[in-house]
Amino acid sequence: MTTDAPGTTILDTDDCLDLLRAGEVGRVAVTIADHPDIFPINYVVDRGSVVFRTDEGTKLAASLLGRGVAFEVDGYDADEGVAWSVVLKGAAVEIEQMQQFFDALDLPLFPWHAGRKQHFVRIEPTEITGRRFHVVGPDAWTTED
Amino acid sequence: MDDGGLKAMSASDVVWTSSLDADTCWRLLRRERIGRIAFVRDGRPWLVPVNHLVDEGTIAVRTDASSALGALDDGAEVVFEVDDSDPQAKTGWSVVVHGRVVPIDDPVQQQALNARGLQPWGPGPKDRQRRIVPDSVTGKAISRHRKQSDGTFLPYMPPD
Questions:
Q1: Which residues from chain A sit within 8 angstroms of residue B91, using beta carbons?
Q2: How far apart are CA B14 and CA B31, in angstroms?
Q3: B151: Cβ–Cβ under 8 A, 6 or more apart, which residues?
């Protein structure tokens, strides 16, 4: 871990993977005909990569295979006033080889909602970045009503 | 709000998805403190967590001019997302806003947003205020009921 701006800790890859492993829900960003889109997904970490399942025929399935994607998890500890985020960039590949497929079936991963899930997708990371920082002035927060 | 979305029943659970109406989406957008913005840069998707404030039907954020988000052209297409989930119940919801970023140049508006608490959570100058003007706002929820011993279904509740 290194620190750059005051109050911010740049997380190393191991810290990022620990935070990823502790989570269950993240968001994947894709491009669809050069337009951005975001999908929340539940996932597991396997061999240093992010694995999740998608429905065949969905917008998400059509937009991510073989493409560059970004994946994000974040969290906020209100007691400590600390927020963190981890962003992973890489290519999304379908897990096709049988051995890999059966390995993936052993992962503690099942979709939260009810569609028929046919694709196991792995995001092979080319870059993992994370940071943790003390929240500046959270008490000043107000909402519009 | 049940839109007849995907439904499935296992021995113990019935699970379904619902669309959230616009009022519910905006209430959730106001309630959440952290969201994520996705945009396209050099043909690739980027995803950045931000804190935000709902202001007059738009999403106001503060960024560094030097950051990837801050460097987006005015009018660039972006997607903003908030969500929450219950890992034990395996339920959750998300709201997704498709829109475009526009600058907030009026000092009066800037000060009003600062006074309402549009403070950047992270350190750094974060001196550029921008807003996302929505083209569409959609929300989705995953619900789950669990079968009781008497055969009735109840929302999943964690054990005491």
A1: 112
A2: 28
A3: none
